[in-house]
Structure formats: structure tokens, C-alpha cells
Amino acid sequence: MSIRRSVAALGPITRAYRSRVLSGSIALDKEQLSLGAALDSVHAVLTSEGSDRCLIPDHHLPGAARYYAGSSAWSGGELSSAAVAAAHAAWNPSPKGVYVHGSVGVGKSMLMDLFYSVCDAGLPGGGGAREARDDGHAPCGPIRRSRRRCHFHEFMLDVHERIHAYKKRHPRADPIPPVAAALARESRLLCFDEMQITDIADAMIVSRLLTILLDLGVVIVTTSNRPPCGLYEGGINRYLFLPFIDTLRDRMTVIEMKGVHDYRRDATTSGLESTEGSLPAYLCTHTDPNARDILNQWFSKGTGEPRARTIPVAMGRSLRAERANASCGWFGFEELCDRPLGAADYIALADNFEVIIVENVPQLSGRIYNEARRFVTLVDALYEAKTKLVLASDVPREELFVGFDAAVETSDGDEEIAVDENPSRETSVIGEGGSSSSFSTTVVRTRDGEAEWSATGRVGVSLAQLSAVREVSFSFQRAESRLAEMASKKWGRKDKTRSQN
């Protein structure tokens, strides 16, 4: 397969991808090439003459958002304004977005970033590669639409902050339409990385919010490890979320990347050495007697005097870093993952430190579900910010994650979550309790012994969190892949381009 064929028909995303292939920075992959062509189609519609006719004017957005949300709180003039805007959009439907899913490390994020880069900054004639500048293509400029690219965690944090602020001003009002209108006013193109839904609150917010955004003409391009039908799988009251899955299928082009090669692992060269020299980014304390000295060397590379720092976090909160300097924060695993912290805290750390050291990392499994969930969220936040992560654990990196499965088991009509850390072997439930009582227990026997669960959950996991439990198990593969790339020589703030993943 040659990317040089039919050069005249190549769109700007494919041309940018071709440029990287010809420069040798990535290898040609037919699944990635196919996704590039699909994104070219979206770009072509966004840049076509008259493409902005489907956009509802900014001053009509609040009324139109309430109209699409089915609100009955109308004044006569407001209804007329919104109805006109809605009819305008109906006659000029917005371009379909793209929902791309597939295995970890196959290139979903890289192609979406390439698409966003072309939309945001344009593309020189020929795609930019020296070998390709004679292909006769004229340069293309940025699209006219306002746009935003972010991780889905970051987007949802922003949404929750907006909802919180609106409810403080209007305690009895529905916050979703005005929040949707504000988001649409700011960004007519939204690119999300790693869409995932793990709890009922986010499921209900996302289903309404994104549906209104699509109605308002916002084009959405998103990546996910799950197909639309796999979102919020096993979640409580999932039937309420199912109409939104149909909306995704109807209003977006769903693309599955069927490749299985994890390109992130290719980025790990020369063992686990970093750009700073021979210092490894992952240390197994059981096999490396110099682990503590190496952590001290990492910390000493930071600028400024060692001191405690208070890190501001969204929603007026803060996080204490007891050992830090201007560019490096040093934490114990329990400080970051054995406390009720979340994406907002980890994003704040990524914003404040170029290097983060985490020591005393245990082997992660379903037996410490909450801690494992937080660690995966930490990895996601630091990966998105290209923050260097240095880990010290008592197990080798390839043994850090222990796969597990979660299922609902019942013997008397009362359902409980059972976690199996060896899915090929049957989990034996040796004691049951009613799920209606917070004091009831279920004891689950796994290969590592017996684990006790209550109706509110072992270590806080309840039946209502079954979707989140499964998502953590599913996300282990992504975290393993990302840690491999983050341990490579190139990884860090100095390398702003995403590898072929």
C-alpha cells in the first residue's frame, strides 16, 4: 500500500498524515489513513462555501437551547426568536461529527489532534514535508468556526463548574440549556479525547447536553475506547441513557479502528531511559537497590528550593504538595490515590509541575478498586499534559496492573458486585447479604483470598458503581499503554507532538 497514489485527491488531514509518514516520524497504517480520509470529509464540509449558514446566531443560542431542551418557560418574543433559529438550523443541518473507537494505541488521538491542528492553524501547500511540497496543493487556512480540543475529563469538569455556578444564581432553573448555549457560543467545533461515562450523574448530563449541542449545530469529533453501545455499560438506570446512544449513531459518523498494534509501546526505546540521561522513569524497588537515590536525582533536577506548595484546584479547593520545588512534585501513592481526589486535582498538578514523582505504588487490582481508579485518572491527566511521570513500585511495570472482571451475582434476589481477578476462573461467593442494607455483606473468594463487600461496596464500591468498576478494569489496558510511552526518552513538555497513538 502506497500513500503516494492519487495525491491530487488527498485532503488536508491525509496530506498532513502523509507528511509525517514521508518524514519517517510515523509508519503508514491503513486504519489511520482511512480515518484521515473520514476527517477530511468533515473538514471539507466545514470549509465549504455557505457552511456557516447552519449556524444559529449567537444571540439566538440561549432561546434555541431552551427550545431544543423542551422547556416551557417562554415569553412570546423569546419563543419566536428561538423558533426562527431552530427552523433555520433545521433547513441547514450541521455537518455530522465523528465518533472513533478502537483499541488503545492505534492512532485515534493522534489523528484527531492532526484534524484539530489543521482546523486551528491550517496547512501549508503540500502538507509541509520537504518530499511532498511539489504535489500542487494550495495551502489551506484555519476554519472560520470557533473551536476547542480537550480531554473528556477536562470538559466534564468545566461543565460541572458551569452548572454549579448557574445553580447558585438560579437555584430552581434548569442549568443544562444555558450551559449548552454558552458552550456553543464559545466553540462551534468540539474535539474530545477519551469519552467515557461511568456514573448516572454524568450519564444524564452528557445525554442532554451533547444532544442540545448537536441541535445547535456544534460539530463534535471524539475518540473512545468503547463503541457507542458500550458507553455506561452496566450503569444504574442505563435505559435512560439509551436514547443518547441512538442519537450518537444517527448524528455522528461512527468509525471503528480495527487495528491491534499499540504504537505507544514502540515509543519506549533503550529500556526506560529518559531524555535527561540514564535515569529510568519506572523503578522496581525490589530489584533496584539504588531506587531512592535515583528518585532524589530526579527531584534535584527541578528548579528552585525544596518547599511545600499549595496547589489551587477548581471549584475553590486546593491540594497540598509537602515535597516540591518549582518544577517537580514528589508524592507517596497514598497521598494521591488513597484520598478522595479526582481529575480536577490531577489536572491542577499537571498544570503546576513538569515532573511528578510517585513512590510506594502497589500492584493495582480490583482489591483496591478506588485507588486503582484514581491512579488511572492521574495517568490520564498527566498524559494529556505531557507531564513526566516517575514511578517507584515494589513490582515490575509489566506486573503493575492485575486484570479483573466485575459482575452482578445473586442467590436470593439481592444483587451484589463480585470482582474476579482471574476471569478465567470462577469467582465463588461464599456469603451473601441484602443489597438494601448498608450493613449487609458479600464475601467473594478470588485467587488472592477472600474479599468482603457490602451493599455500599467493598472499599466504597456499590452496585450502582458497576459501570465504573468495569470501566476501571477496561482502562487498565489504556494506562499500561500510556505508561509505556510516558517512560520513553522523548516524553515530556519539550516534546509537544503526540506520537502515533
Q: What strand order characterises the main sheet?
A: 6-11-10-9-8-7
What structural class do the secondary elements suggest?
alpha/beta
End-to-end C-alpha gap? 20 Å
Radius of gyration, taken over Cα atoms and rounded to an integer in Å:
24 Å
Helix % is 25-40%
User: Which of globular, elongated, flat, extended, rod-shaped describes the shape?
Assistant: globular
Query: How much of the polypeptide forms β-strand, as a percent range?
Result: 15-25%
Query: Unreliable stretches, pLDDT < 50, 5 or more residues?
Result: 72-79, 126-134, 269-276, 410-418, 422-461
Please report the total strand number as a whole number: 16
Number of helices: 15
Q: Biggest sheet: strands, sense, closure?
A: 6 strands, mixed
- Kindly report the average pLDDT value: 79
Write a compact overview of the structure shown.
This protein is an alpha/beta fold and 501 residues long.
Q: What would your notes on this structure say?
A:
By secondary structure, the protein is an alpha/beta fold. Helices cover 38% and strands 18% of the residues. It has 15 helices and 16 strands. The protein has helices at residues 12-23, 30-47, 61-69, 76-91, 108-121, 152-169, 176-186, 200-215, 242-251, 263-266, 291-300, 333-337, 343-352, 369-385, 466-486, and strands at 97-102, 147-151, 189-193, 219-224, 252-257, 282-284, 307-313, 317-324, 328-332, 355-361, 388-393, 405-409, 416-420, 428-431, 441-446, 449-454. The strands form four sheets. A six-stranded mixed β-sheet has the order 6-11-10-9-8-7, with helices on both faces. Strands 2-3-4-1-5 form a five-stranded parallel β-sheet. Strands 14-15-16 form a three-stranded antiparallel β-sheet, with no helix packed on it. The protein starts with 11 loop residues before the first helix and ends in a 15-residue tail after the last helix. Residues 72-79, 126-134, 269-276, 410-418 and 422-461 have low confidence and may be disordered.
